Amino acid sequence: MEYKESAYNALLEEIFTLFPSVQKDGFVPGAYKPGLERMTAFCEALGHPERRFSSIHVAGTNGKGSVSSMLASALAATGLRTGLFTSPHLKDFRERIKIGGEMIPKEYVFGFLTEWKPYFIKNRLSFFEITTALCFKYFADSFVDVAVIETGLGGRLDSTNVLEPDLSIVTNVGLDHCALLGHSIGEIAAEKAGIFKESVPALVGESSPEAASAFEDKALMFCPLYYAESEKPALWSRRGEILKKMDLRGPYQEKNLRTVLAAVDILKEIPIYEGLQDMECVMDGILHAAARTGLRGRWEKLSSMPPVITDIGHNPPALKVNFDALQALLAEGKYSSLIIVYGVMADKDLDGILPLMPPDATYIFTAPDTPRALPAEDILARWKDFRAARGMGADRAYVAGTVRAAVQMAITLAHTLGEQTNRSASAAKPVPPLIYVGGSTFVVGEAIGLF
Question: Distances from the Cα of 413 to the Cαs of 59, 182, 236, 317, 364, in angstroms?
């Protein structure tokens, strides 16, 4: 079938309808299919494209996207043709599959989906299995030297776990997707350690005694195990300079950076990665990771007047870091007040998130355009109940039906608060309010589109 934009859009809509995705539809039947049998069979039908390039496999609760992007950028800076597979996407699902920062072409996607759609249907594949196979085939056909591949969920049963990588990385372990991965840190760590392979070095970015026990039980039988927190990687002495200059921002990036630098130290001893011995080249790649890979929504500054920051952190461990950082900025006097535009998916742990929310912020609750979203009115009701149970007032919270309306409300409110502060302040330089937009990848994706 000849490629046409209209045909591409129609086929993509059909694929999304036939094969629900976790990102779009949540954990409905068919969206999440753990296990490697279908993926192994599909890779065999494709001629095992995953064996035609070197790879680095990245799992973890948070930080996977940043670590993967920094590594991919560093590898590309050494001259390696580098593929990058991440999820979720913000706007276009092709954001998941990139070479040198460029998304997979629509023509390639159209050809792959057209050719293999009967196979998808016959073998009842999941959307993520389809996307992962598409990634492998595209990277192989494009002759990448190496690909950095991020897991979708967990590790042991994730579709990407058919890889035989040169390095396995687990960034960290937190309580998220507990119904699928386990209800303790140890259980979840064991699932993520499922990406460890025999004789392949494994690197853990951030750990705890309970997680470490699970990692060591797995590694004891299989592979050498490293902890980034225990390593003193090259360039770590220059972390202050790097963190100040790098275009990936946010309170968690110091830990992600240490993981990346520890990975570089391990990889540079492998012949294909010898270019990583050039530390200035590595540093250049890390400093420009967001620009080179197109990664967005990580403590991204969308506007300076008024200041607007957005971040995709959506589970309690990630949001605790973000909310603590926001309150630290207020304590430092960099901003006069805090306005939070917040939306959340209905299946997320809102009860675990509410206690983390800055108590003195002004909130605008909203719902992005997806059936998975918890209605803004429901968030407000639960927020009021939470505050009332603790004897706290609930008078600085609003509802906006769309993300666009919420952002517009926040900007208007910021201008009003800014004018009030400036009239009452004696300081020569006005201190503006700060707007933070987050809680969901969908909220962030829509917000980025507005700026």
Answer: 40, 42, 42, 29, 10
Cβ-contact 234, 246 below 8 angstroms: no
Residue 355's CB is within 10 A of a number of other CB atoms, namely 11
Residues 176 and 282 in one domain: yes
Whether the pLDDT of residue 426 is over 70: the answer is: no
- Cα–Cα distances (Å) from 306 to 323, 330, 439, in that order, read 19, 15, 20
Identify the CATH number of the domain in which residue 245 sits. Answer: 3.40.1190.10
Confidence at residue 181, expressed as pLDDT on a 0 to 100 scale: 87
Q: Print the domain residue range for 170.
A: 5-293
Domain count, the chain: 2
Query: β-strands 54-59, 167-170: how paired?
Result: parallel
The SS3 of residue 340 is strand
Sheet holding 307-311, edge to edge: 300-304, 307-311, 434-438, 338-342, 362-365, 397-399
Same domain, 213 and 316: no
Residues 199 and 304 placed together within one structural domain of the fold: no
- Could you tell me which residues come within 8 angstroms of residue 267 by beta carbon, excluding any fewer than 6 positions away? 56, 166, 167, 273, 276
Mean per-residue pLDDT for 290-301? 96
d(CA 197, CA 204): 14
**One domain, residues 366 and 439:** yes
% of the chain beyond a pLDDT of 90: 84
Tokens of 349: 């742990």
Q: State how far Cα 42 lies from the chain centre.
A: 26
- Cα distance between residue 110 and residue 278, in whole Å: 39
Q: Are residues 371 and 239 in the same domain?
A: no
Give start and end residues of each alpha helix (H) in 308-348. Answer: 316-331
Q: How confident is the model at residue 428 (pLDDT cuts 50, 70, 90)?
A: low
Q: Is there a single domain that holds both residue 275 and residue 305?
A: no
- The proportion of the chain whose per-residue pLDDT surpasses 70, expressed as a percent, equals 96
Q: Which residues, 6+ apart, have CB-to-CB distance to 432 below 8 Å?
A: 305, 306, 307, 335, 336, 414, 418, 421
